[in-house]
């Protein structure tokens, strides 16, 4: 039987935390639920302590200095403190569904499989959160990939390099990974990234480890959409958005220089990094830099950054 450590970073999640934890505890496969409290300003710490007292599976940790370090550092601390052979993650405002580990029970019989992922659904918890989410993202009921995939197909799909449309990133809440695999490749979350650290981790994971899709036609977990979701607060192609995208692609770029990536993947990451680097420039300098970059490689105009974005807004 699988023995799984569920890692939940906790910051200002008092309204949702108990539902999240109680969705993970009942699974026979779940050995422990690790709460890493990140100096919340609400009553989250009190709830964490109560849950740890009430349920033997729940273990509570804080950063050594008791300060706020962000979700990436909290997940890394959770990995360090975990004792299960398998690791999963769960955001404190989300929850698992009863079929969460159905695919894993069979797929992990194959020793070459390092990780399994599935589809996540959406629950709108507030009307404002719903409006903000739908204004920025497609109103799909599932976040999932478009077809079953495994191995290097997943890495290339996440970069948008597959012949078929791969779909969106799979959500961290739906990933189950062998502890031995992430330790072997020294994989941890980039603590410099306050957002996108999950996407950064997943892409690197897909390169180093053998992943396989599990249940992708129905949700195995649910993402709660509410007023305080950080990702919905960022206006696409705004200076803040471009800055965070630049940090994300720069992280992948630094990593890629040390890996034996194929030419297409390496060039894709380089161009994305360069595009968002250019997005941070302004005025005449930006125009000249863009022209020079386009002459060097016209494909930069096909990156995720929209060069037609209004300079006045920047």
From TrEMBL:
Annotated Gene3D superfamilies: Spore Coat Polysaccharide Biosynthesis Protein SpsA, Chain A
SUPFAM superfamilies in alphabetical order: Nucleotide-diphospho-sugar transferases
UniProt key word Nucleus: no
Protein keywords: Glycosyltransferase, Transferase
Top-level taxonomic group: Bacteria
Domain Glycosyltransferase 2-like as annotated: residue spans: 5-130
Xref: Pfam families: Glycos_transf_2 (PF00535)
Protein name: Glycosyltransferase family 2 protein
Native source organism of the sequence: Chryseobacterium gallinarum
């Amino acid at each position: 039987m699988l023995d799984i450590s569920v890692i939940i970073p906790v910051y200002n999640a008092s309204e949702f935390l108990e539902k999240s934890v109680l969705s993970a505890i009942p699974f026979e496969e779940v050995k422990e639920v690790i709460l890493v409290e990140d100096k919340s300003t609400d009553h989250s710490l009190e709830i964490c302590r109560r849950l740890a007292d009430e349920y033997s599976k729940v273990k509570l940790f804080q950063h050594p200095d008791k300060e706020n370090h962000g979700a990436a550092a909290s997940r890394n601390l959770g990995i360090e403190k975990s004792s299960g052979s398998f690791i999963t993650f769960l955001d404190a405002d989300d929850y698992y569904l009863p079929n969460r580990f159905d695919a894993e029970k069979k797929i992990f019989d194959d020793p070459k499989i390092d990780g399994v992922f599935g589809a996540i659904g959406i629950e709108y918890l507030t009307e404002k959160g719903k409006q903000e989410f739908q204004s920025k993202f497609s109103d799909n009921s599932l976040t999932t990939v478009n077809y079953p995939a495994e191995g290097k197909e997943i890495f290339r799909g996440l970069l948008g390099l597959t012949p078929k449309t791969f779909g969106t990133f799979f959500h961290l809440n739906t990933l189950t990974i062998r502890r031995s695999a992430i330790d072997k490749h020294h994989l941890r979350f980039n603590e410099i990234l306050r957002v996108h650290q999950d996407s950064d981790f997943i892409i690197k994971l897909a390169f180093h480890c053998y992943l396989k899709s599990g249940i992708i036609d129905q949700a195995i977990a649910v993402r709660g959409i509410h007023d305080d979701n950080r990702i919905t607060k960022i206006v696409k192609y705004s200076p803040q958005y471009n800055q965070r995208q630049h940090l994300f692609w720069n992280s992948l770029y630094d990593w890629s220089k040390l890996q034996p990536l194929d030419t297409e993947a390496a060039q894709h990451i380089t161009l994305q990094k360069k595009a968002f680097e250019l997005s941070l420039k302004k005025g005449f300098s930006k125009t000249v830099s863009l022209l020079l970059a386009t002459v060097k490689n016209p494909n930069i105009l096909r990156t995720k950054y929209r060069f037609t974005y209004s300079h006045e807004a920047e």
